[in-house]
Write a structure and sequence with these properties.
Number of domains: 1
Distance between the termini: 42 Å
Shape: globular
CATH topology: Butyryl-CoA Dehydrogenase, subunit A, domain 3
Number of helices: 7
Radius of gyration: 17 Å
CATH superfamily: PhyR, sigma-like (SL) domain
Length: 167
C-alpha cells in the first residue's frame, strides 16, 4: 500500500484541487481497498489498475455527494494551494513560474466535466496506458481516446481564455 499512497493522493488531488480533501479521500480509498481486497482478481488487470478503479469509483461517489455544494461555491473560495517541490537545478524565478502555471492548470482542470477530467488526469498526469484507463473507467478504448482528446482540446481552450499559453 505504501508504494501506491502518492499516486492515489495525486489522483484525488488532481480531481478535487484541495489538499486536505485529497488526503481524506486517499484514506477512504485505502479503507475501501482493505475492506474489498477479497474482490481483487489478478486476471482482470494489475493491482495498481484495480486500485485506480477503486479510487475512481470513490471520487465519482464524492462528486455526486458534493455536487449541490459546489453549485453555490465560488471558484475563488476553493482555489487549491499548489505545492512546490524544491529543486537544486531550478532558479527561484523558474519555480515561481512553474508554481503559477501549475495553479492555472489546476483551475482549468476543475472546469472540465468529470468524465473529461478523469481521462486527462489518468493519461497525462498519471501516465496510464489506454488499456489501463479502459479497465479503470469501464468504457471502450475508443471512448477513452475520445475523452482524452476532447479533454485536451477543452483544457487548451480554457487555458487560452485564462491567458495561459505559449508566448
Amino acid at each position: 500500500m505504501r508504494r501506491h499512497t502518492r499516486r492515489i493522493y495525486n489522483i484525488c488531488y488532481r480531481f478535487t484541487g484541495n489538499g486536505a480533501e485529497a488526503e481524506d479521500l486517499s484514506q477512504d480509498v485505502f479503507l475501501r481497498v482493505y475492506k474489498t481486497l477479497g474482490s481483487y482478481r489478478s486476471a482482470y488487470g494489475g493491482f495498481a489498475t484495480w486500485m485506480t478503479s477503486v479510487t475512481r469509483n470513490l471520487l465519482i461517489d464524492h462528486y455526486r455527494r458534493t455536487k449541490r455544494d459546489r453549485v453555490t461555491d465560488s471558484l475563488d473560495d476553493a482555489m487549491p494551494v499548489v505545492e512546490n517541490k524544491a529543486s537544486s537545478a531550478r532558479r527561484p524565478d523558474e519555480l515561481a513560474l512553474l508554481g503559477e502555471l501549475s495553479s492555472q492548470i489546476q483551475v482549468a482542470l476543475t472546469k472540465l466535466s468529470p468524465e473529461l477530467r478523469e481521462a486527462v488526469i489518468l493519461r497525462d498526469l498519471q501516465q496510464l496506458e489506454y488499456g489501463e484507463i479502459q479497465r479503470t473507467l469501464a468504457v471502450p478504448e475508443g471512448t477513452v481516446k475520445s475523452r482524452i482528446n476532447r479533454g485536451r482540446i477543452e483544457l487548451a481552450r480554457i487555458l487560452q481564455q485564462m491567458g495561459v499559453g505559449p508566448s
